[in-house]
Specification:
five-stranded antiparallel sheet, three-stranded antiparallel sheet
Length: 233
């Protein structure tokens, strides 16, 4: 529902302002349908583009990802405009395509900014861990969270109901898990205190045995913080 209101809101704003005179002289309802339709089309495209960017460019800085997103959306929407014009019996000259893309990209930047601000607003109103817990696949949802560990661009979530992979960076997950009773134990591991069954020491190395039998490593970098928190002496 929120997504629909977001699309209608931006579409209505563009219909009123009519950027670049795209719908100048058209009846208000036609202008509204034109802009709202293309914003909805762009939002739908973003639904598929964002996961792809996370998969292939997940380790890139977030501002770069947002820039690539706006450029990609501009391509998709520009193609849509050209196709719609052709279906209406109007050909858009190829010499005008770069200019059209520039116009659409400016709007795509605005839409991307709104998307980012809305995402941050939602994250700011959620309790610690709530957003991350909503990412847990249904087959293991509802179980006690034991730990997460990075596997390439994926995270393996370990719970009392089993484990599953999701496409996400560990750094982003740690932000969403801030405030929960757990700590990072290794560059690729975060462990919940409730998930630890026993602490093992061997040859100066410390590992945490989770309640599912998994052995989570503890690196020297994070050991002092765990010791201070009372996880072991």
């Amino acid at each position: 529902m929120v997504q629909v209101l977001w699309v209608v809101g931006i579409g209505s704003f563009l219909a009123i302002t009519s950027p670049f005179g795209a719908t100048k002289g058209q009846p208000p309802l036609i202008g509204w349908a034109y802009w709202t339709g293309f914003v909805g089309y762009g939002a739908l495209a973003a639904h598929f583009i964002v996961p792809a960017l996370e998969k292939f460019l997940g380790r890139w800085p977030r501002p770069v990802l947002y820039l690539v997103l706006s450029l990609s959306l501009a391509v998709v929407v520009s193609v849509g405009i050209v196709v719609m014009a052709m279906l209406a019996g109007e050909l858009v000259p190829m010499r005008f395509w770069p200019k059209l893309y520039g116009y659409v990209w400016v709007i795509s930047i605005g839409i991307t900014i709104v998307m980012v601000l809305r995402e941050r607003q939602v994250e700011g109103t959620q309790n610690p861990g709530t957003k991350f817990e909503s990412r847990i696949p249904a087959k293991i949802a509802g179980g006690t969270l034991y730990a997460i560990n990075a596997e390439d661009h994926y995270l393996r979530i370990r719970t009392s109901r089993g484990d599953a992979l999701i496409l996400m960076r560990l750094g982003d997950a740690l932000i969403e898990l801030a405030g929960m009773d757990g700590l990072r134990t290794h560059r690729s591991w975060w462990v919940a205190r409730a998930g630890v069954r026993e602490v093992h020491r061997q040859n100066g190395k410390i590992t945490l045995e989770l309640r599912d039998g998994t052995m989570a490593p503890v690196s020297r970098t994070y050991a002092p913080e765990l010791r201070t928190a009372g996880w072991f002496s």
